């Protein structure tokens, strides 16, 4: 049986020579679908060969060889499934000074949504019903509250995986059922398994 890590083409991550900068590379024919998400870093998406289709900030972008799309930290986006033989893509993730509040409603900034606090309770604090809060939150962020919280946890997992966190412990700490549960969501959003991401981000001296 083929291991999930090696079955379909995936994004390959590696640290850049500059502190805090990450690189992600993809090459192939069937550019994979990535679920809507955001990053805590600024993302620069380059198409070196072929083409790629991205939705970001409510707009659709068809990128061809030589194009670059800048996606600010905190902006919801997704890569669409696309077929173009010989496509080569490169993403650069650079530290952002500030990712910005998740949402600003009635002058109140929500810098984060507590992962275990019911959405209805957050809505009541703001004087809104659950449905009204959900609509307004999604209109500002591009994601409904439950999806935003999931992606926020995945971003934390990504940061922790650059260190020596154990996958099983990290999954439970971040509220996932188990390591497999974390892995499924991580791959749908970032295009790579947590284990492969961690191996790519480790210095060569730690991967031997």
Structure notes:
With 208 residues, the chain is an alpha+beta fold. It has 2 domains: 12-97 and 150-207, Jelly Rolls (Sandwich), CATH 2.60.120.10; 103-142. The chain is built from 7 helices and 10 strands. A hairpin with a 6-residue loop joins β1 (12-15) and β2. The radius of gyration is 18 Å and the shape is globular.
Strand content: 25-35%
Average pLDDT figure: 88
Global shape? globular
CATH architecture of the largest domain: Sandwich
In total, how many domains does the architecture comprise? 2
What is the tally of helical segments?
A: 7
Determine the CATH topology of the largest domain.
Answer: Jelly Rolls
Number of strands: 10
- Helix fraction, binned, reads 25-40%
Q: Tell me the strand order in the biggest sheet.
A: 1-2-8-3-6
Helix-strand category: alpha+beta
**CATH superfamily of the largest domain, please?**
Jelly Rolls
Largest sheet: 5 strands, antiparallel
Question: What order do the helices and strands come in, and which of them pair?
Answer:
Blueprint (H helix, E strand, L loop, with lengths): L11 E4 L6 E10 L9 E9 L1 E6 L2 E6 L3 E4 L5 E3 L2 E14 L7 E3 L2 E3 L8 H7 L4 H12 L3 H16 L6 H7 L5 H12 L3 H8 L2 H4 L1
Helix pairs in contact: 1-2
Structure summarized in a few sentences:
This protein is α+β, with helices and mostly antiparallel strands and 208 residues long. It is built from 7 helices and 10 strands.
């Amino acid at each position: 049986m083929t291991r999930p890590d090696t079955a379909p083409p995936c994004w390959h991550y590696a640290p850049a020579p500059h502190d805090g900068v990450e690189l992600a590379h993809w090459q192939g024919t069937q550019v994979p679908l990535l679920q809507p998400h955001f990053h805590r870093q600024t993302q620069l998406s380059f198409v070196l060969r072929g083409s790629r289709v991205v939705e970001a900030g409510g707009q659709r972008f068809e990128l061809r060889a030589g194009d670059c799309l800048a996606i600010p930290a905190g902006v919801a986006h997704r890569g669409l499934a696309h077929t173009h033989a010989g496509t080569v893509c490169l993403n650069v993730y650079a530290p952002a000074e500030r990712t910005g509040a998740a949402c600003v409603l009635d002058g109140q900034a929500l810098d984060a949504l507590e992962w275990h606090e019911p959405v209805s309770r957050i809505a009541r604090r703001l004087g809104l019903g659950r449905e009204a809060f959900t609509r307004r939150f999604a209109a500002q962020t591009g994601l409904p509250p439950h999806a935003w919280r999931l992606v926020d946890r995945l971003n934390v997992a990504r940061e922790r995986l650059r260190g020596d966190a154990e996958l099983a412990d990290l999954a439970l700490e971040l509220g996932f059922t188990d390591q497999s549960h974390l892995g499924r969501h991580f791959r749908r959003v970032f295009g790579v398994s947590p284990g492969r991401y961690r191996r790519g981000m480790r210095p060569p001296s730690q991967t031997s």
